[in-house]
Design brief:
Chain B: Its EC number is 1.2.7.8. The complex is a heterodimer. By secondary structure, chain A is of the alpha/beta class. Chain A contains eight helices and six strands. In chain A, strand 2 and strand 3 form a beta hairpin. The longest helix of chain A has 17 residues. The two termini of chain A are about 25 Å apart. In chain A, about 55% of the residues are buried. Chain B is α/β, with parallel strands linked by helices. Chain B folds into four domains: about 210 residues, Thiamin diphosphate (ThDP)-binding fold, Pyr/PP domains (Rossmann fold); about 100 residues, Rossmann fold (3-Layer(aba) Sandwich), CATH 3.40.50.920; about 180 residues, 3-Layer(aba) Sandwich (Rossmann fold), CATH 3.40.50; about 55 residues, Alpha-Beta Plaits (2-Layer Sandwich). Chain B contains 19 helices and 22 strands. In chain B, strands 3-2-4-5-7-6-12 form a seven-stranded mixed beta sheet, with helices on both faces. In chain B, helix 4 links the parallel strand 4 and strand 5. The longest helix of chain B has 22 residues. Chain B is globular. Chain B starts with a strand and ends in a 5-residue tail after the last strand. Classes of the chains: A alpha/beta, B alpha/beta. Chains A and B meet through helix 1, strand 2, helix 2, helix 3 and helix 4 of A and strand 8, helix 10, helix 13 and strand 20 of B. The structure holds iron/sulfur cluster (2 copies).
Chain lengths: ~190, ~600
């Protein structure tokens, strides 16, 4: 296998970092060398967050080079579009169909881009993105905090190892009292992708 | 055992296993987690020091008793600590002393970008530079050994990308026992009066030479043979990027970048045709090689500023003619300029009210349709969460340069003869760090400014560490609080008000009184940081039948107040309700309803 690169993007507070930590644990459990790095804004206060994760027999740079992302998991639509240069033809995309407008938009200084604008780069690159209503799905499951695990479940079928390994990593990271609900969210996400 | 660790976690574990006895730090991104992880070990004495100079002094004192000690900080923290740092170099150590400094290339979370390696030349201390978490772990043990063997403090330099990326680490099961503290009187070494210092300094210079000789065989400097056409000299994370771009090349990977292994470098340079120096930030290695008469390529192609990545090195190599131009297989994508998403003060932040007050009194923001006015009041700012008050819509900060500078700069402006009222804004943690020096100076020099100390009971920006004013130690223990009011009064301040952070009327009146008095004034604005506040209450709601879209509430910049088409609404997941209630105080239509009990 060639190095596998995963980009997870979203807004501070959405659970991006926990999701990428769990993916790392899973890749490690699957026997790979793993590197990951998170980039946060000045603090995590509602700014844009991106996490790079790579695994292979051996990995040197923790940052994914341009065009070499195999899987992008976007927790928010606008963030899905922001890191276009990392995507390539081979990229699989899982995008949460949800908009969190930055402050400049509420203030009327800027406009939230349309779906077509957001997807323009994906279209030019020939990437077919899965747009999924994850917020709705976790609301139905009864807890908005499980968004990240639901998205991991959905993305699991794009990974080069079994989804059970990922479920195992979730069990290790989450406190027991949150486990049951989150495993349900994981299973629901996984089922939705099939 | 193999573990996935961030660079900072690996540094902490490495120090623990090396028998560390004491660690002192001031939080600062990207270095903060080193201390947070050390504080989990009950057998290490850990402390958040009030600033970085104090941290180095504390660690140096511990080293003088023969135990292994560490001080950690971010790059700009070393500027604060420079005096203590130079002093430690002069006396040398007893127990191993490691000073960890984390640089921030690309300025992810700092006020500037600077290359700590320059301090090595100045202080004659060796610098170790790990390039991943494994090395962070291993180099920590090595740093302590070197420190004791050569009688010198050692700089362990990290960067954001090393500190904040995680990779696998093979850790050792054994922990070295920590030494027992014991003081041996040794005035010739530890009392730097000129007669003693004159003897000591040549020893420091000799020490530098000896370490240079050692560097020739230091296992941290690695020759990685490859193609003889291209030789790469690199260090730190830049090595990892270069390895990605030139998998076939020969490498000289320098784990110690000061002093340099001159013979090793010469040998390497003779074994390859072209040498490409790949280093982040300044041309420290390149300049040294040039002084040695070795011709290299480097900063002509690699930028001197900003964080490197494989793509930048790739592009540089193509420009330098080392790599062939590849026909770009990726389509060039033209994406529109998407709106940025800068960090914001949290919903329910105790700083929002005072910034809103400053913004309105200072004519900083205007309602939609109203003309922009010339700002009034000069607002001298400082470093912390509250620096985010500089962003629109609040726009209530005019300067921000370094930790603790706000009060002194404000005094300077006033003394320069500025006609407008000058207001200094500083957080509680920053005040304890070095702002207090400015306050003492303001009293002494009879300044007429207004000083706002925004006391949110924590060091919020770096992740809610304790500080002397909130009485929570590094290990979470409750300790004596330094009383801010008494401290301020003790410095000689007569005009002191303590105002509640969420009461706009009180803030407005208090601030107006302070400004109009024309005297030196301190206002402590007190309200707990929303992130650590335990009180919870039901979110507020907007009655859309009453809301006439005057947009006054939007001027608070609260991220919970959002727009959906023509309507405003409050995000119930973000709003902290009656803990805050600022928006309902602002709304002229009384359209924002509070929902008291939770
Ligand atoms: S972390 Fe605390 S102090 Fe910082 S912006 Fe949020 S509420 Fe305000
Ligand atoms: S009460 Fe108003 S200003 Fe305070 S957090 Fe809620 S929406 Fe924001």
């Amino acid at each position: 296998m060639k190095k596998f690169g995963i980009l997870i993007v979203g807004v501070g507070g959405q659970g991006v970092i926990l999701a990428s930590n769990i993916l790392c644990d899973a890749a490690m459990a699957a026997g790979y060398d793993v590197k990951k790095t998170d980039t946060l804004g000045m603090a995590q206060r509602g700014g844009s967050v991106v996490s790079h994760l790579r695994f292979d027999k051996e990995v040197s740079s923790p940052l994914i080079p341009q065009g070499q992302t195999d899987l992008i998991i976007a927790f928010e639509k606008l963030e899905a579009a922001r890191y276009m240069e990392y995507l390539g033809k081979q990229t699989k995309a899982v995008i949460n169909d949800m908009a969190m407008p930055p402050a400049s938009i509420s203030l009327g200084i800027a406009e939230y881009p349309s779906d077509a604008e957001i997807l323009e780069g994906y279209k030019q690159m020939g990437i077919k993105a899965d747009f999924i209503a994850a917020n709705q799905a976790v609301k139905e499951l009864g807890n908005a905090k499980m968004l990240n695990i639901y998205l991991l479940g959905y993305a699991a079928s794009y990974l080069p190892f079994d989804h059970e390994i990922l479920a195992g990593a979730i069990k290790k990271r989450l406190p027991p009292k949150l486990l049951e609900g989150n495993l349900k969210a994981f299973a629901a996400g996984y089922a939705a992708s099939r | 055992m193999k573990k996935l660790l961030s660079g900072n976690e690996a540094l902490a574990l490495g120090a623990y296993n090396a028998g560390l006895k004491l660690a002192a730090a001031y939080p600062g991104t990207p270095s903060t987690e080193i201390m947070e992880n050390l504080a989990r070990f009950p057998d290490i004495n850990t402390q958040w020091s009030s600033n970085e100079a104090v941290a180095v002094e504390v660690a140096t004192g511990a080293s003088y008793t023969g135990v292994r000690a560490l001080a950690a900080m971010k790059h700009v923290g070393l500027n604060v600590a420079a005096d203590a740092f130079m002093a430690a170099s002069t006396t040398g150590v007893k127990g191993g002393l490691v000073i960890v400094v984390a640089d921030d290339p690309g300025i992810h979370s700092s006020q500037n970008e600077q290359d700590t390696r320059h301090y090595a030349r100045l202080s004659k201390m060796p610098v170790l530079e790990p390039s991943n978490s494994q090395e962070a772990y291993d180099f920590m043990a090595l740093a302590f050994e070197l420190s004791e063997h050569f009688d010198t403090p050692v700089i362990l330099r990290s960067t954001t990308r090393v500190s904040h990326s995680s990779s696998l680490v093979e850790t050792s099961a054994e922990k070295q026992p920590a030494a027992q503290a014991a003081f041996k009187h040794d005035t010739a070494k530890l009392v730097m009066v000129p007669t003693a210092a004159r003897v000591r300094w040549p020893k420091v210079l000799k020490r530098e030479e000896l370490i240079g000789e050692y560097a020739e065989n230091c296992p941290c400097n690695q020759y990685i043979p490859g193609n003889a056409k291209l030789g790469i000299i690199s260090s730190g994370i830049a090595f990892q990027y270069a390895k990605e771009v030139f998998p076939e090349a020969s490498f000289l990977k320098l784990g110690m970048t000061y002093p340099l292994p001159k013979n090793l470098i010469k040998e390497f340079s003779q074994s390859v045709e072209t040498i490409f120096v790949v280093e982040e930030l300044d041309s420290v290695l390149e300049d040294s090689l040039c002084r040695m008469g070795i011709s290299v390529i480097g900063k002509k192609y690699i930028p001197r500023s900003g964080e490197l990545n494989p793509d930048i090195i790739w592009a540089a190599a193509i420009k330098a003619g080392i790599l062939p131009e590849i026909k770009d297989t990726l389509p060039k994508i033209n994406t529109p300029d998407f709106p940025k998403r800068p960090p914001l003060l949290c919903a329910g932040c105790p700083h929002t009210g005072i910034f809103f007050t400053l913004s309105t009194l200072g004519q900083r923001s205007a309602l939609p349709g109203k003309p922009k006015r010339e700002p009034k009041l000069v607002l001298s700012g400082d470093i912390g969460c509250y620096t985010l008050g500089a962003y629109p819509p609040l726009s209530a900060m005019d300067t921000c340069g370094c930790m603790g500078g706000s009060i002194s700069q404000a005094v300077g402006m006033e003394k320069a003869g500025l006609g407008e009222p000058v207001i200094a804004i500083i957080g509680d943690s920053t005040f304890m760090h070095s702002g207090i020096n400015g306050l003492i100076n303001a009293v002494y020099n009879q300044s007429k400014i207004t000083i706002l100390i925004l006391d949110n009971r924590t060091t919020a920006m770096t992740g809610h560490q304790g500080n002397p004013g909130c009485g929570i130690a590094a290990n979470g223990q409750t300790v004596t609080e330094v009383n801010l009011e008494e401290l301020v009064r003790g410095a000689g301040i007569k005009n002191l008000q303590v105002l509640p952070a969420f009461d706009l009327k009180a803030l407005r009146n208090g601030l107006k009184n302070a400004i109009s008095s024309g005297e030196l004034n301190v206002i402590i604005v007190r309200g707990e940081c929303n992130v650590i506040c335990r009180k919870r209450s039901l979110p507020n709601t907007i009655d859309t039948s009453l809301c006439n879209r005057c947009d006054a509430c939007l001027l608070l910049g609260c991220p919970a107040i959002q727009r959906d088409g023509d309507k405003l609404f409050i995000d119930p997941g973000l709003c902290t309700g009656s803990n805050c209630n600022l928006c309902s105080q602002v709304c002229p239509q009384k359209a924002i309803k509070t929902n008291e009990a939770a």
